[in-house]
Design goal:
This protein is 41% helix and 14% strand. The longest helix is centred in the C-terminal third of the chain and has 18 residues. About 5% of the residues have low confidence. It is of the alpha/beta class. The chain has one domain: Nucleotidyltransferase, domain 5. Helix 3 packs across helix 4, helix 3 packs across helix 9 and helix 5 packs parallel to helix 9.
């Protein structure tokens, strides 16, 4: 089945870039199968981009039960997250940046969930029941870390969970930009003491009410985060959180970013 979401030769495994093939364990590609791993990945990306149900997968693609089996197994093994993290590092190095960012941005997105979702809550401010997607983005809009919580989780509490996921992966990281929702004296002090990180809260211009133009660095910070959410909007499986398990919901986001990043990997001379 020819589909715009299919991996190209360069994305999957043909020299010189081999963006995805080299990141998967060799034994996955060596085993004889009725359907190739590339076909399985194409089917997963078809679901992520098109937003269809697994059971509505076209007959030209492998049986949905087989595709969902691989999706579930790779999610539980954290293989998809590992591929995603390696692509983040590779793309940063390709653009001339250090593998470890020194500054990141943090924000959250509130989305509705299905009634069967195992993790959900009610946000009293926005009158919405669902989940929150807490993400950290770098200067390129890539997502080094994410964490899903119930919608009633406060910004500062969700951020602390996100920092635990981030761990000590980035040794150069010192500063985090956040919006006013993360303003809390105890929270800022806790982050400074526990994680040795400094949070700069992007606030409005003092003394000015209503709409106003923020300083250029603050405008750029907000734009980078919203651009990342905008990328997700073109993948219909993320328009609403359809996943029962939050781990599967995170995996859908990882697959989305893998698709976007693999398209940006440049060819290198062998």
């Amino acid at each position: 089945m020819i589909c715009p979401t299919n991996l190209t030769d360069a994305q999957c495994g043909s020299p010189p870039k081999q963006a995805i093939k080299l990141l998967l364990p060799a034994k996955i590609w060596q085993r004889k199968r009725k359907h190739s791993i590339r076909t399985i990945i194409n089917a997963i990306l078809y679901v992520v981009k098109g937003g269809i149900q697994w059971r509505m997968m076209p007959n030209d693609l492998p049986d949905w039960r087989l595709v969902y089996y691989y999706f579930r197994q790779w999610s539980e093994q954290e293989l998809v997250r590992q591929i995603h993290d390696k692509l983040v590092t590779r793309l940063r190095l390709q653009t001339g940046l250090e593998a470890s960012p020194s500054l990141i941005l943090i924000d959250s997105q509130l989305v509705k969930t299905m009634s069967a979702a195992t993790l959900k809550g009610h946000d009293g401010n926005k009158k919405l029941t669902g989940r929150k997607r807490f993400i950290i983005v770098d200067a390129l809009g890539l997502v080094p870390a994410l964490r899903l919580t119930s919608a009633n989780m406060g910004e500062w509490a969700g951020a602390l969970l996100l920092f635990k996921v981030l761990g000590q992966r980035f040794t150069r990281l010192k500063t985090i930009l956040a919006d006013q929702g993360f303003t809390r004296v105890n929270f800022l002090a806790t982050v400074k003491t526990t994680f040795q990180l400094s949070i700069n809260v992007v606030c409005g211009v003092l003394g000015v009410k209503g709409f106003h133009v923020l300083p250029k660095p603050h405008r750029r910070a907000g734009w980078i985060v919203e651009r990342a959410f905008g990328w997700w909007a073109f993948h219909r499986r993320l328009a609403k959180d359809y996943e029962i398990k939050e781990t599967h919901a995170e995996t859908i986001i990882y697959w989305t970013m893998i698709r976007l990043m693999s398209r940006r990997i440049r060819e290198t001379k062998s």
